[in-house]
Please model this.
Amino acid sequence: MKIINIDRDIVTESQSLGICYINDSEGCEIFNSQSIERGWLDNQSRISCIPTGTYDVRLEYSNRFNTDLYEIYGVVGRNECKFHAANYSRQLNGCIALGKNRVDIDGDGFKDVTSSKATMALFHKAMNGDKKAVLVVRNL
Model:
């Protein structure tokens, strides 16, 4: 089973930024990207990043996005936390987006992530259609 890691190096009330990497069953890194989430607001539904911890992840069809997405299970008091494309933390409702680089795209003083759609395609390629994985979220 693959392990998805999110190591956050910036966590504020406005946004959380980190590095996402995936290790295969032998522990070899097969994917690496930037991650972006909402800021930490006490795990409030739809406006906070998820707490640090270990979670189950399952590939499921999303009606909202009309595609298969990886959903995070086991977040206390939360549901529908998914990995999906987004460039700005404000586009997320408790979900995680991945991108290539950190850049202040819109000049608002906050770092965003670039190439999110392409990066999410690489994430899905690295996951190779696996139906289940484990997510480990840490604040550095």
The chain is about 10% helix and 45% strand. The chain has a mean pLDDT of 96. Helices lie at 116-127.
